[in-house]
Each structure stands twice: as C-alpha cells, then as structure tokens.
Design goal:
This is C-type lectin-like. It holds the Pfam family Lectin_C. InterPro entries: C-type_lectin-like, C-type_lectin-like/link_sf, CTDL_fold. By secondary structure, the chain is mainly beta. It has a domain at 2-59. 6% of the residues lie in helices and 33% in strands. It is built from one helix and five strands; from the N terminus they run H-E-E-E-E-E. A hairpin with a 4-residue loop joins strand 3 and strand 4 (65-71). 5% of the residues are buried.
Length: 84
C-alpha cells in the first residue's frame, strides 16, 4: 500500500469539514456538502482543541489509521476523488 512508505505519520486531509456554529459538531464532505454518517475517530477525537479544529484528517501510523480534527492554516497532503 502506498501509504506505508509515503504517508506514515503524516496527517492527510480527507475532505471533511465541521460546518456547525454551536457546540454540536456537524461534519460534511467539503466537495458535496453531504453529511458524513460513518466515522473512525481516534480516541478523544474530535476534540476541537482551542475551538479551532474544523477540518477532518487521517493519520496513518504504518499499520492502521484514525481520524482527527485539525485547525486550518497548515499545509497537508490530501486525497482526491475522481470519476473515471
């Protein structure tokens, strides 16, 4: 799998964003606005640390992955979905 060598221990944006304006989280896919219904959050995530984490990413540790919420302002690798 390409993630073993290229993306290990890198946070990768997967296109999920939190669009809620209150304390409840509402995660949608950025490209479509469709609600996300299945999650694989890491323990204690999403935590919206410092009230600034609105972007969903995955972290690959070499054998498994987990989802995290992250702040904006950081360059990250990303996955893109395309049609063939």
């Amino acid at each position: 799998m390409f993630t073993d060598s290229i993306l290990e221990n890198e946070s990768i944006w997967i296109g999920g964003v939190d669009v809620a304006t209150g304390p409840e989280r509402e995660w949608v896919w950025f490209s479509t606005g469709e609600g996300i219904t299945s999650f694989n959050w890491a323990p204690n995530e999403p935590n919206n640390e410092h009230g600034e984490e609105y972007f969903m990413s995955i972290l690959w540790n070499g054998s498994s992955y987990s989802w995290h919420d992250n702040p904006s302002g950081y360059s990250r690798a990303f996955f893109c979905e395309t049609s063939r």
